[in-house]
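CORE FACILITY INTAKE
Project code: CF-77B
Contact: R.S. (postdoc)
Sample description: multi-component assembly, four entities in total
Requested service: structural model of the whole complex
Turnaround: standard
Below are the sequence entries exactly as provided by the requester. Do not edit them.
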Amino acid sequence: MQQTAILLLHCPDKLGIITEITKFITDNNGNIVYLDQYVDKIDGRFFMRVEWELDNFAIPAEKISEYLETLYGQRYEMEFKLSFSSKKPRMALFVSKMSHCLYDLLARYNAGELDVEIPCIVSNHEDLRYVADQFGIPYYVWSINKDWSNKQEVEKAEMDLMKEKQIDFIVLARYMQIISEEMIRKFPHNIINIHHSFLPAFIGAKPYHQAYQRGVKIIGATSHYVTSELDAGPIIEQDVVRITHKDTPETLVLKGKDLEKIVLSRAVKKHIERKILTYHNKTIIFS
Amino acid sequence: MQQTAILLLHCPDKLGIITEITKFITDNNGNIVYLDQYVDKIDGRFFMRVEWELDNFAIPAEKISEYLETLYGQRYEMEFKLSFSSKKPRMALFVSKMSHCLYDLLARYNAGELDVEIPCIVSNHEDLRYVADQFGIPYYVWSINKDWSNKQEVEKAEMDLMKEKQIDFIVLARYMQIISEEMIRKFPHNIINIHHSFLPAFIGAKPYHQAYQRGVKIIGATSHYVTSELDAGPIIEQDVVRITHKDTPETLVLKGKDLEKIVLSRAVKKHIERKILTYHNKTIIFS
Amino acid sequence: MQQTAILLLHCPDKLGIITEITKFITDNNGNIVYLDQYVDKIDGRFFMRVEWELDNFAIPAEKISEYLETLYGQRYEMEFKLSFSSKKPRMALFVSKMSHCLYDLLARYNAGELDVEIPCIVSNHEDLRYVADQFGIPYYVWSINKDWSNKQEVEKAEMDLMKEKQIDFIVLARYMQIISEEMIRKFPHNIINIHHSFLPAFIGAKPYHQAYQRGVKIIGATSHYVTSELDAGPIIEQDVVRITHKDTPETLVLKGKDLEKIVLSRAVKKHIERKILTYHNKTIIFS
Amino acid sequence: MQQTAILLLHCPDKLGIITEITKFITDNNGNIVYLDQYVDKIDGRFFMRVEWELDNFAIPAEKISEYLETLYGQRYEMEFKLSFSSKKPRMALFVSKMSHCLYDLLARYNAGELDVEIPCIVSNHEDLRYVADQFGIPYYVWSINKDWSNKQEVEKAEMDLMKEKQIDFIVLARYMQIISEEMIRKFPHNIINIHHSFLPAFIGAKPYHQAYQRGVKIIGATSHYVTSELDAGPIIEQDVVRITHKDTPETLVLKGKDLEKIVLSRAVKKHIERKILTYHNKTIIFS
């Protein structure tokens, strides 16, 4: 596999943008290996993901961003993000007591399905240290007092760890703690959560019990970027499973666990592949 | 097909109920053709649907209810509902301007899939009269003023019609009007609505626009019994379809229409077959 | 809505095709309202659908095809098909005795969901004439003898009718007759069938009985273009529904009917919107 | 949790069986905690699963089977299987090189979701020994020669191990070897396989490549009991996922892996819970 550049961009929709960008790449001997674009007619906005091989590319990798800004950035009011396949994203996993999402991500990681580094696992409980040990990944525990008296201090330590480990994004793999606004600001649209309901139904605590109480016939799970409003960030992926009146909160939890891990892993994979753009609290997911 | 008796019952779960009821039927020469039961361990409640052939049944049809009440009703604190396959339920359809649910129900009716009578279609608009005419079913229109000044009067007329036509249950096939509490009380758990969202998400008006705004990746439709609280009655059936960021409110409406008609028709069919029990604002759906 | 030109094309994948085509359109003042492309890396083939407004387009509609052929056709070994939104496709429906697919298509047609003309319905039985009458569409019946002795003669009459009615494509809406190779050749990838199984499982007759016999836990329906090999043409759309051991061949038929009509209607809609390309017995479906 | 007896039975459908069996249990002071039954009207056969608490049961556990045989076995031509919640089934896992199903089962096992013993993992390759080591489960490798010259010898060794470990049932968690008839006979309906297609479509080798070639729009996975005919045993569970023309054999493999592990784990769980009856090459799955 050759090294590639990955460009994610969006801007007001104008005639000829796709032509210009693809011409820029091909004129400079870049071989385009992926191109997908989408026009939001309602917002009048253009979204694009393009990936090209760098081997014979006329512009040095470290200069591409500058060229893009100069040539198109201002002219098209374009917001863009350039990354390189050679730089693996670094992911931190936050967990509490349930192992299913953690195992699912680590099993994929071990099988080579996720092109990512996992420098650390963080938790508020000792419970899952044995899983981290199984996979040889450092496990850090900071207990949070029930009265949250040490919450700020813990988050400070966690953020120091994120900095030390050069973490690019955080995955809350059933981490049962609220993340502070300060931490969210440090990782804008780079904290991925799994909520165990079909959002926006059953926001907040104990969604399976809420679902049982309401008597729904289908339950779901939702992976989304964390924003300051609870369970209201841009949705990345959702899935559902059919249930019946025979299900209890306990069987809902079991069925839901299968949804949660698959939905979270799909979202994480899309994020790692840099196939997600966010705009107006929604996601554009490239195929 | 022989005539059958259909018994739906629920009561506090006690040892031996199923034995007693089935023994009662078989001892009196009833041939059981359907039996399904369910115990809600959390509420400690027993639910059952049993259907048997009446041909050689020792007790006359019109006396069975009395026998059941005497033998088991009080003893088991049993609520039950007895009906007969020989008596087709009579269904009124309420519609506004969209034809998809109406066509779906009438096409099934014509194909013999629904064992029901449809004595009338009621609307607040003239728009769908041509559909009623296509199927030769009387169509009644009462316009409701925007300020609801004639709402009470219209509902009075509608209820008179229901009485005259001996209607057993009402189906709101995308009828875009709130039903008054008085009317709901006259048809307890006998008014079936289709809501164009995955309840409890997106209660109220314009759910597809709400879904678009929220950026969900799956939309749904929900059929439920109408109760006095808006979109909060017992859910009978739900289904969903996957969407993407490419969908607009318009394409959501189109995709949703397919869900709505299938979900509503499934719910109506279960109701007609007397396979639904309601308890604590939930439904038990027999297979 | 302005009139648009719709271009579907495929050719060996080469650098710069998308740039050239979009440049051709925008240089001639065409406003692109739809663009989607796909590269099959395995076959090294490029597929594209582009749609643009004709109002200020510099090239007259009747000349566009010639220009495309001259400028790109040979150079890129491009196969393309140009059509115009102003020309509604003309669809013939072939049916036998089951009404569900017919009703579903006609109800959508009446609701304005299908941008199509339906000049005729053809059948080998009188059974569904009443449906055609309900919708005021001419209904033609040619019985086919059990020994197929008049099969050739009937197909001759049907093809004369297709010619007279200027039919663009045929939809077999549960038409229970084999189509001859001659007729298939006259409508290459323009005859759409619905097969009541999850192809390639259960090819041929009585697929629901086959599914019952095999004890599958999910059944499906498949819409595909008809080719000379039975049930083996390019698949357009499929969907499935979960079943259980409680289902009988009869309940499978009922559940399957819901699948069939939705799957067929989705396929027909995509075809009408000219969003399907076929290549190597597969379909590329644009969104 | 009290110890329970679990009775799975089937017999020709006759009046009063359910009454007799439940009366037998309750008369002997057994508290029924689970009861589900199903009548196959087409085959005229009755199926039942009943579970009751043993604490005050009048008949000693080791005598119940004898009583059932004497009282009902011959009289009703009943086939039944009695087991006890106190006796955990012992499961052997057979794997080759892919880890996803193995990880999924072991992660559930570790989380306490599967009430089972796993005394050994068997493979024809060393590749997954590290997974077995992570979970501290003995891992046995017998390579099979390409010409199968040592196949019989290897199976002999495997069966000796099964005997030594007192294995009740075998799970082929993507084990890429044919099982001999002799081994199948030793574990009748006790070898569970996962096939990576929606059976009966794409039987045999490389189903994802077959699916790619055929151009299907949905792929599936099937868990079934192994019988002597390849991929033709009783189906326990199936699930599917939607794909598009953009998928390659490689992405199908990735999407399929998620299906395979979930479908296999669901089937294994049902088997462990003794909720599966087989009859005429089909399964009855109790809820």
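Facility notes:
- The two ends of chain A are 20 Å apart (CA to CA).
- Chain A touches chain B at residues 38, 40-42, 198-202, 214-218, 220, 234-240, 244-246, 248, 281-285 (CB under 8 Å).
Invoice: internal transfer
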